[in-house]
Every structure is written in C-alpha cells, then in structure tokens.
C-alpha cells in the first residue's frame, strides 16, 4: 500500500499517514512493529526523544531494505534542551539513537522550556526555564543549514504563539503537530496554519486511549455504512482536511487498516464536524496551572517569544 505525500513549504514531501510511536514499546514489541509497518507500506515514523524508545526504532530501521530516502523520520527536541547552545547536541543524540545521518523533520515538542535536569512533561514553576521560543527556533534554523535536518517545525503551538513568532522567523515552520480528532477539531488553528503554509499533523488521531472517539455513535454509524472501522472514519475525516495523521498501533491488522482511506461525502464530513467536544487527551494544565496559556487561546499569553 503506498501512502500519498504532502508537499511541505520547502518542497520536502511528507507521507500523509505515519506511525505514532509514543508508548509503543510495551513488552519490547516496537522493534518488530516498525519492521512490520515498513512491510505494510509505512514510510513515515513519528518519534521523540521524550518517548525513550528511539534506540529500538533505530535498530529496526537499520534492518529494513527500503532506501533511507524513501523514509520520512520525524523527531522532537524535548523541553529541557531549549537553550540554543544545547540544541545541536540534542539533535546529535537523537540521530545517534535512531542511527541516522539526518532527520526529515525536527520539531520543538512544546512551546515552553524546562531546566536541563527535569524530564517532567508538566514541570512545576521552579523547574521551568526562561528560554525565549525564538532563541530555540534560531538554533533549529541553523540545523537546516547544517544539512542534518531537511525541515523544522513545532508542536503544541497555538495560533497566538505562531502569530507572534512568524514575523521573526527566517524559516517558517514546515509543520505544527497538534492534537486533532473528531472530539478536538481545532478548525481555527488548522485554517490559520494552512493559510500560512504550515502543514498540520494531527496527533492522537483516534483519541488515544482516553478520548472515546471510536465509541461515538456517529463515527460508528459511518463506519457501518462504509464497511470499515471507526478508526478509518476518524483518520479519513482528518486526511480529507489536508491533515497528516500519525495513528499508533502495534497490532498488525490495525496497522494495515489504518493505511486504508475511505471516501467520506461532504454530508458525512459535516456530520462529524458537529460532534466536536473540545476534549483533549493531552493537556499539561490539568497538572500545572502556570501552563494554561499553551492551549487556552483566549487567555493565550505566551510569556517568552
Ligand atoms: N506532539 C505531541 O505532543 C504528541 C502527543 C501525543 C501523541 N503524539 C504522537 O501521536 C501518536 C498517536 O497518538 P496516540 O498514540 O496517543 O493515540 P492514537 O494513535 O490516537 O491511538 C492509539 C490507540 O488506539 C489503538 N488503535 C490503533 N489503531 C486502531 C484501530 N484501527 N482500531 C481501534 N483501536 C486502534 C491503539 O491500540 P493498539 O496499539 O493495540 O492497536 C492505541 O491504544 C503518538 O504515538 C505520538 O507519536 C504526539
């Protein structure tokens, strides 16, 4: 099965379906999963330093026979490496773990920095670091010049942050990776990104393990009508909006199904647009109030650009 590619703002082609790898190494099965995924037609792998499983992915990629230039590998700089002097080393560590010479896409995982010694995704105030986003971004721009990354982008960036950032960028982010599924549709953010040449990748496109998108009556009804799975409906809905999707599965049948798109009519897409619930799987503000500006755009006051 071959997956269509979307042209990023610098001409690099990115497969519109990739494999999510967060939490994908339970019982050590990620190595086999990656190899199986390549056999099934996956060429795009969504990785991150924070997922602590890039070594397994790297070992598997080393064994596949598909040429490197056909693969599309994304990874993400973690919050504790935002200081510009730490950024080149952070990329080198990622490349070493993945056993790669270059990445296709490097993302800033979150729009806030934490201190080097913390790994917490929701750092308390005294573990935050005062690093302006643009300082990290400029260091990432230099990585493109070095040839070690083909494209750079961001993740979990809201419209307000992007609006402040864009006039200062030498390289406009190629991608913004954010949570998108039928219960968190983010129409305004997606429109803003797409109008400004920033491709959108939807993470948790199935709602993850916590948002019951696949149990929704409308999604199930549409799946029945198209003789497909609820997951295929959710993924096809996102793809129809020009959104790249990165579902995670370690199950062979589901890996295969997740590559198979179904054609939803405009009426069916409209039915899905009505089931929005603004329900996120990932939201650090559940744990720490001081990160409220990250997702709650009406209060968006990114303190450090
Ligand atoms: N940038 C960020 O901050 C960020 C945050 C979160 C996630 N991500 C990325 O996005 C990827 C996807 O998000 P996610 O892993 O949280 O959630 P997801 O892909 O929405 O959902 C994964 C869950 O759905 C199940 N599943 C997969 N295919 C299915 C199917 N066809 N039918 C029924 N269930 C199915 C999986 O179980 P099985 O494995 O058993 O199939 C797993 O429990 C992550 O892996 C990661 O790469 C990025």
From TrEMBL:
Q: Which residues form the active site?
A: 51
Q: Which GO terms describe its molecular function?
A: oxidoreductase activity, acting on the CH-OH group of donors, NAD or NADP as acceptor
| Keywords carried by this UniProt record | Oxidoreductase
* Chain residues that bind substrate: 109
Q: Which residues form the NADP-dependent oxidoreductase domain?
A: 16-276
The protein's superkingdom reads: Eukaryota
Q: PANTHER family annotated for this entry?
A: ALDO/KETO REDUCTASE (PTHR11732)
Name recorded for this polypeptide: NADP-dependent oxidoreductase domain-containing protein
Native organism: Coemansia asiatica
